[in-house]
Amino acid sequence: MKPRVLVTGFEPFPGAPVNPTQALVEWLRDDPPAIGGLAAFSAELLPVDYAGIGPRLSEIGRVFAPDIAIQFGLAASSRGFRLERSGRNSFADAAPDNWGARPDDGPICGGPPLLPATLPLRAIHRALSGAGLPVEWSDDAGGYLCNMAMTLALAGACGGFRPRWSGFIHVSPVGEGAPLAEAAFRRGALIVVETVCAEWQAMVAAGASVADQAGRQHSIG
Fold this sequence. Notes:
Elements: E1 4-10, H1 20-30, E2 40-46, H2 50-63, E3 68-74, E4 81-84, E5 86-88, E6 114-116, H3 121-130, E7 135-138, H4 145-155, E8 165-171, H5 182-205, H6 210-214
Parallel strand pairs: 1-2, 1-3, 3-8, 4-7
Antiparallel strand pairs: 4-8, 5-6
Helix pairs in contact: 2-4, 3-5
């Protein structure tokens, strides 16, 4: 089974007038990765909008129907690539979005309180580390739109948006004087996409179930 692969990033938001994940989406649209064995590839921008993100994911699901969703977002405190191991299904004193709105405290959607990522995170960690890029683990995807997008994807809560593998990677600021130079950021993002696709293809070739196997890989042991 050849996968349909989606990469998402976010718009700028209050306190972050430049979001490197927006630039990542634009770059991947202009120059999609040359990876064999894919059914399709798409890069999409998500709104920093509590009311709009669910409908946007539903739209992507209807139009593209990804098997794999690799979500990227900016975290100023990150030192490079931060692999999120779970989404927290709750709002708690959430910060305002780009429209000044904020949700009430409580669940994001129907589902368990924590939803583990289903991307092959250990393989991603090994690949980034092996390339000499800074990578770290996280058990807290924050309380903003990044955690919301991760949770909605893992819960399958948005219409036809139900990827078999999904997860979130926070990245640090990018550029001169930042933890990641632009070239390193792009190289790392490509490594992530290539690694995930290689893991999918290896499991399919081995006759394994991608749905059953993915959850075994998200932890570090």
